[in-house]
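User: I've been going back and forth on whether these two constructs are worth ordering. Before I decide, could you fold them both?

Assistant: Sure. I'll take them in the order you sent them. The first construct and its structure tokens:
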Amino acid sequence: MSSPLPATFVKGFHNEDQVRRMEYRELGSTGLRVSKLALGGATLSNLFDNDFDREEGIRTVHEAIRNGINYIDTAPFYGKSEELLGQALKDVPREAYYIATKVARYERDPAKMFNYTAEKAKESVQRSLALLGLDRVDILQVHDVDAAPNLDIVLNETIPALEEFVKAGKARFIGITAYDVDVLKECAERGKGRIKVVLSYSRYTLLDNTLLRHMKAFKELGVGVICAAAHALGLLTNRGPADWHPGSPELLAVGKRGAEICRQRNVELGKLAMYYSMQLEGASTFLIGIPNRELLQINLDAVLDGLTPHEQEVLQYLRENVFTKSHSWCSTLETVNMFK
């Protein structure tokens, strides 16, 4: 089915046939229509992979946007992600994409990782704009509000600093991110009218359905919901997670079992995981890290073509026999040492 062209379509730049195949959804009350699949910037760096191929990453960004992905998410914490995007986006019309970055989470050293002060937020936004080579971004987000000392500092210091950039025309909307969905909901409620977007990661996957708890509340608040990390930080892939994954031994064993079954049946678990997460009603977009064109194509296939009958059978088997209950891991603050 062909979709109407989004406001981000640029004739002569985009692959029009692919753009028409992509589904676009309203991002809450922002007025932005964003692609169902969004490009996450965490894997466009060596944050998770020391062997990350920078040139391949740039080519992946270009191909993703040409094929209809119009929402990009990055952050200062993601190593040189903003710098890479700045280089990649020099060759892309500014009207062809929406981009979001973050404040409040910065360095790998746990002692210097988080800073929710207004002064640091302002400094960070200016640096992000410079690295991205842009005079404005579409969304500024407070990174991991569940790691803040309390929500008062987020609402009374961090967000007011971001609102200054909105008033100055250097950003359009403000969002928040978190792993803890209860904190995410509380912050969105207390910041009603000011917070337009919420990003939840790894909380609606084959392993964890916790995000369902608050989807109704987010709809009533009129915020756009970004459902990120369908692969549960690499756990739901045939390759499996890195050594630093915060999951418990039980959780890691469940993911390993799922991957083993998929390899035996010649199916990519990552594709099944992406397809499953995208069935969540009420989410505006599904954000994942895509460091190379091979993975880009796998995820585009999941979005545009769905699953083959064989893949559907494997997914059903996994849901009935492997991924039978909801799991979560420790809090954001308890995971900080994995980045040392």
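The second construct, handled the same way:
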Amino acid sequence: MDQLEEASQKSMLHPKPKGLMLQYGTAGFRTTAKHLDHVMFRMGLLATLRSRKTKSTIGVMVTASHNPEEDNGLKLIDPMGEMVTPSWEGYATQLANAEQEALCSALKDIIEKETINMSETASVFVGRDTRPSSQRLSQAVLDGVSCLGGKIQDYALVTTPQLHYMVRCRNTHGCYGTRHITRLLSETLPGIY
């Protein structure tokens, strides 16, 4: 079984609710947390593909910012700490909305359109907020990344700006700053240290 078929099989552990349609926008995905397990797994897959395409570390932040506690969401972070490029927002929407039987072909479509070398190393940083659903949902992201053989750095509880910063630090090889969490906190929260 190849990686994409395996990803499709493993996605059955993160089932998509029939008929649910979501749109990735400027704020990423946002909805009731109970509807997001499949989205998180699939964005782990997408982040791994994006990492291979850019030959850089990509970030995935599980958060719903200021939405109600029962909600959650996800933001994809591109190599320089910026929001994911708009063309990849479309891929995020495509993968999130693909029915189970179409997931493998949706992944193949992205790989072909973007000419992604699947033997390229992939690196994904993952963070989450303190919502009750965030740990479970970030595990689904980790499952997606590992399913396609991506290397993972799970930062657990961090703020969204901190994860953006760490992704940029990694991809600038320390020229922008350091990504060590203690150093990050001392650089971003000087009043505490």
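Notes on the second construct follow. Residues 52 and 119 are 8 Å apart (CA to CA). Residues 37-54 form the longest helix (18 residues).
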